[in-house]
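Listing S7. Sequence submitted for prediction.
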Amino acid sequence: MRLGVAGLGFMGATHLKAIRSLPGVTLSAVCSSDETKLAGDLSQVGGNIGAGDRFDFSGVKRLRSLADLIADPDIDAVDLCLPTDLHESASIAALQAGKHVLVEKPMALHPAACARMIEASRASGKVLMVAHVLRFFPVYTALIQAAGDVGPIREAAFRRRCAMPGWGGWLKERQRSGGGVFDLLIHDVDLCLRLMGAPEFVSATGHEDFARGIDIIDARFHFAGGAMASVRGGWYPGEFPFSMEYSICGDDGAIEYSSAGQAPALYSRGGTRVLPLDTADGYAAEIEYFASCCDAGMAPSRCPPAESSEAVRIAALMRDARKFKGEKVSCK
């Protein structure tokens, strides 16, 4: 598959590193308005999971316009690593031009935008996939694969925290990114929905003060039958370190993980079992899966756009529920 990458910030650099390890994917073009980055110098790009790198773009088309990237007949698919407020327009334009689309999470800022993206994919017959990379991270694929061993899930907890990003100034603009609660915790919302389905109600408390680098939430998802899940975290002040963790509890056992040093483990009446982890890089596995879907002309069942759209809907409800200070808000 011949791939063009649009956006050479933190996530674009992360995807480029992954693409280098995929023999079935050819990097055909990159697109940016930054001349230094187009020269291959992404060394100053940083983020919460590592820094940038230097790339050899000597055999790659270097384009300054997204329109040029989308119109290029030598490109089969585009990898959109752009600010969230551009996801809808860029995805629809690429799909209408006959390109397959991998678009970074969150899918868009509003459910209606997600619906328009899905319709454009259907009308074009091209693959649309949202890069919900946690579905490909070993510590989370282990959870998905072992979740059935705990029986019906009665309670779950997902937590993700970091400092307000020092990269990508657009992330600090709520109208462009949705804020830290939306942009960061969309991961945990997506995983919660993958394991438990959509809640009936959501309630939340928290605080937002972008000037101080704070956008935090403690949300509760209330499910039919009495099950409950929590999604907590967001942006913390200062140089707060990145961390993530989860736990689920069912009738027959529990699973817990923490990036602070707790490997994913299943606790049951039969004893404790550390879950096996594959060695794949999550980003490489994600892009490789997308390429296989494009090659086969099949919808991405492992990461369906409809589920990514639902994550946007519930994450937006969760964020907005903070203003009701813990009162339940219907998810209907």
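Caption to Listing S7: primary sequence and predicted structure tokens for the chain studied. The radius of gyration is 20 Å. The mean pLDDT is 95.
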